[in-house]
Fold this sequence. Notes:
The chain is mainly α.
Amino acid sequence: MKRFFDFICSFIAFIFLAIPMLVVALAVKLTSPGSILYWSDRVGRNNIIFKMPKFRTMRTDTPAVATHLLGDPDRWLTPIGKFLRKTSLDELPQLFSILTGDMSIVGPRPALYNQDDLVALRTEKGVHKLTPGLTGWAQINGRDELPIPVKVDFDVWYLDHRSFWLDLKIIVMTFVKVLRKEGVTH
Length: 186
């Protein structure tokens, strides 16, 4: 049921968001050199690595580490990078990952391939069995501001309480958080 819901919703979202996605793609291309999309190696279900697309918000010479590990993250942003991140428009290409089954609409956010501490803790707690999501319980409860152990605690809570109705609640709360631009630090 969840996979069917994910597929139908992401397909419909692709149709409705096609023009805004084209506008964002054009803006990325016109404001900085390099590709429109950034394909990030992420940890998926059962710790299998997959390529996750995002609209590129960082310069092409940015080190491949979590944003909070960069000394001065703002110095690496493209001219429209901060705006894309604050509005979460950079996340729209992940609809493709939902269509292919690498991601779900709701689940723990996919870790970077080199976030060993996050991956190890999620594996220890059984969270690695979940398909990662575009949004999740941790996302609506702090997003970038959460330390890894707290983020994993939220992931475990979701693992233990997941349901169709909880997913709907998380989706609605995500829209509210995005509109308010809450929890984004970079």
